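Minutes, project check-in

Agenda point 3 was the complex the collaborators sent over. CS summarized: two entities, 225 residues total, and the question is how they sit relative to each other. Sequences were read into the notes so everyone works from the same version.
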Amino acid sequence: STKEHSHDEL
Amino acid sequence: MNVFRLAGDMTHLSSILVLLLKIHTIKSCAGISLKTQELYALVFITRYLDIFDRFTSIYNFLMKLIFLGSSLSIVWYMRRHKAVHRSYDKDQDTFRYQFIVLPCLLLALVINHKLTFKEVMWTFSLYLEAVAILPQLVLLQRTRNIDNLTGQYVFLLGAYRALYLLNWVYRYFTEPGFVRWITWIAGLVQTLLYADFFYYYILSWKNNVKLELPA
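CS then shared the predicted structure for the full assembly.
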């Protein structure tokens, strides 16, 4: 599984 | 943050301000789909569930509040405000959006980065945003004379996501390991849905004629 995504975009 | 993303956010913000301007000043929402506005409110609610527990920046926080507040107030105006509600054409705004919401929810349950409630809601908001414009585009095809503010609103809404595509290209080449397949594909589908609107909008602007979408 991919690493924790930082939802840094709106 | 890069210039494409900032331009995208500002374009998105201005699309919402154009719509609020139209509704608030001329007290009319003629040609605007309430279904699309409700879908956008749902997009922002499911996208910003982490507004309080994941702090990125003041900019991020403020923009989330603005997007949430404006989308909810537009829905409120169109549903509750007497004059505005009277100008809403509910007989034409008949897109059954359960055909949009349910598939997006199922897809988010199947294709996501992590099977947690917040991550699935965030993924759902991406898929939903990609198709949320459909009721509005259908309504535009049924609306004979599209007024300028409505045309500008839809144009800015499509342009914002196109700018985000440029932002993702920029970040892919400048940030090693920056890959966001789900976001990229949803954003591409979203922008492609505006393709024919862009074509007719730019044509009407170039020939200086009223915007009209073929039915």
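Noted in discussion: Chain A touches chain B at residues 1-2, 4-10 (CB under 8 Å).
Follow-up: revisit at the next meeting once the mutant set is ready.
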